[in-house]
C-alpha cells in the first residue's frame, strides 16, 4: 500500500490560485483607473472654477474703472493670462484647433478663442455631439438687448461666463 502524503500544491490548485490572483489584480486596476479619472475630472473642474472666478473679478474690475467698452476684450484674450500661474500641463497658445499635445494638457486655441483641455483618461467622458474628446471652453459675454434704433449694437453689459463649447458629461 502506497500512500502519498503530498506537502505542496497540485497543478490544479496552482492554476486556480493564479486565476484568482489575476482576477483580483484586474478588478483592483479597474478601480484604480476609475479613481484616477475621477481625480483628473476634479482637477479639471477646479481649474475651470478658478478661471470662472477670475473672469468675474476681471469683469468687475473693468466695470469699476469705467472700462465697460473694453469688457469685450475678455472674450478675445487667453484666460490663462489672468492667473498668477498657469495650471499644471498648460502648453501655451496655438493658432490651430486640434494641436498635438500630450494627454492631460491645457492649451489656448487663439484662432477660435477657446481654452482646450485634452483629458488623459476619458473612459467615462461622453459628448452630446462631438467627434473629438477635447473639452473646449469659451468666454461668453451677456448684454442687455439694445433698443430698436440701435441695430447691430448691444445694451449694457450684464455678465461674463466661461462656458463649455460642446456639452459633455463626465461620469
Describe this structure as you would to a colleague.
- The protein is of the alpha+beta class.
- The protein has one domain (12-170).
- Helices cover 32% and strands 22% of the residues.
- The protein has one helix at residues 11-64, and strands spanning 90-94, 105-109, 114-118, 125-127, 135-143, 157-164, 168-170.
- The strands form 2 sheets. It has a 5-stranded mixed sheet with strand order 1-2-3-5-6, with helices on one face. Strands 4-7 form a two-stranded antiparallel sheet.
- A hairpin with a 4-residue loop joins strand 2 (105-109) and strand 3 (114-118).
- The longest helix is centred in the first third of the chain and has 54 residues, at 11-64.
- The chain is elongated.
Quick summary:
By secondary structure, the protein is α+β, with helices and mostly antiparallel strands. The protein has 1 helix and 7 strands. The protein has a 5-stranded mixed β-sheet with strand order 1-2-3-5-6, with helices on one face. It has a two-stranded antiparallel ribbon with strand order 4-7.
- How many beta-strand runs? 7
The mean pLDDT is 91
Radius of gyration, whole Å? 26 Å
Low-pLDDT parts are: none
Largest sheet: 5 strands, mixed
- Strand arrangement, largest sheet? 1-2-3-5-6
Total helical segments: 1
Give the strand content. 15-25%
Shape: elongated
Helical fraction: 25-40%
Query: What series of H and E elements makes up the topology?
Result: HEEEEEEE
State the distance separating the first and last CA atoms. Answer: 65 Å
- Main structural class: alpha+beta
Tell me the number of structural domains.
1
Amino acid at each position: 500500500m502506497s500512500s502519498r502524503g503530498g506537502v505542496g500544491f497540485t497543478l490544479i490548485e496552482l492554476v486556480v490560485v493564479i486565476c484568482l490572483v489575476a482576477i483580483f489584480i484586474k478588478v483592483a486596476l479597474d478601480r484604480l483607473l476609475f479613481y484616477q479619472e475621477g481625480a483628473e475630472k476634479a482637477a479639471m473642474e477646479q481649474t475651470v472654477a478658478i478661471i470662472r472666478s477670475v473672469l468675474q473679478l476681471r469683469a468687475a474690475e473693468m466695470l469699476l474703472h469705467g472700462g465697460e467698452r473694453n469688457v469685450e476684450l475678455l472674450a478675445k484674450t487667453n484666460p490663462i493670462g489672468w492667473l498668477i500661474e498657469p495650471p499644471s500641463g498648460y502648453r501655451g497658445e496655438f493658432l490651430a484647433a486640434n494641436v498635438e499635445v500630450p494627454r492631460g494638457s491645457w492649451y489656448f486655441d487663439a484662432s477660435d478663442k477657446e481654452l482646450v483641455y485634452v483629458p488623459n483618461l476619458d473612459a467615462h467622458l461622453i459628448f452630446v455631439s462631438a467627434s473629438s474628446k477635447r473639452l473646449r471652453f469659451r468666454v461668453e459675454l451677456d448684454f442687455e438687448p439694445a433698443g430698436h434704433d440701435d441695430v447691430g449694437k448691444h445694451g449694457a453689459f450684464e455678465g461674463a461666463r466661461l462656458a463649455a463649447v460642446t456639452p459633455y458629461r463626465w461620469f
